[in-house]
Amino acid sequence: MLYGKEHVERYVATDGEEGHDWQGTTTLILTTVGRRSGQRRSTPLIYRTDGDAFVVVASKGGDPDHPLWYKNLLANPEAEIQVKADRYRVRARTADEDEKARLWPRMAATWPQYDEYQTKTERSIPVVVLDPVEKLA
Fold first, then answer.
1. Candidates 3.30.70.1520, 2.60.40.1930, 2.30.29.30, 2.30.110.10; correct CATH number of 4-136?
2. Where are the domains of the chain?
3. Fewest beta carbons within 10 Å, which of 31, 101, 107, 128?
4. In angstroms, how far is the first alpha carbon of the chain from the final one?
5. 98 burial level (CB within 10 Å; 0-12, 13-18, 19+)
6. What are phi and psi of 60, to 5 degrees?
7. 3-state SS string over the chain?
8. If 0-12 CB within 10 Å is exposed, 13-18 middle and 19+ buried, where does residue 69 land?
9. pTM over 0.90
């Protein structure tokens, strides 16, 4: 089973042929710039589309703290994603309450553990909208 660094490596090497379809859902690769290190960091995340946008959830398995990739996006919302062979420059934003109310059930339908994760933490798990800015070559 692919996960973490190996997931990113296989996904990138195969243009998503390995890793896009994962455990009954779909994943993309999000690349952020580390808010402290300035290094590029790539993370596989479950996603769904909403119009032209891509939607991900900053769950960290219900941990009390946000995932590092989300903290990086808060510091710098400019990022890149890879969806299968397609790469995009995106601008990230946290869904507002109305958007989250609409998007959360869709995300939980594709990964039911999200509802469980929310019961494990007092923080409101953010739904993140990745709006494409430019398709990359």
1. 2.30.110.10
2. 4-136
3. 101
4. 29
5. exposed
6. 50, 40
7. CCCHHHHHHHHHHCCCCCCCEECCEEEEEEEEECCCCCCEEEEEEECEEECCEEEEECCHHHCCCCCHHHHHHHHCCEEEEEECCEEEEEEEEECCHHHHHHHHHHHHHHCCHHHHHHHCCCCCCCEEEEEEEEEEC
8. buried
9. yes
Q: How many residues does the chain have?
A: 137
pLDDT number for residue 2:
63
Note whether 80 and 135 are within 8 A (CB): no
Residue 4 binned pLDDT confidence (cut-offs 50, 70, 90): confident
User: What are the tens digits of pLDDT across the range 52-82?
Assistant: 999 999 999 999 999 999 999 999 999 999 9
Place 1 in a pLDDT band, splitting at 50, 70 and 90: low
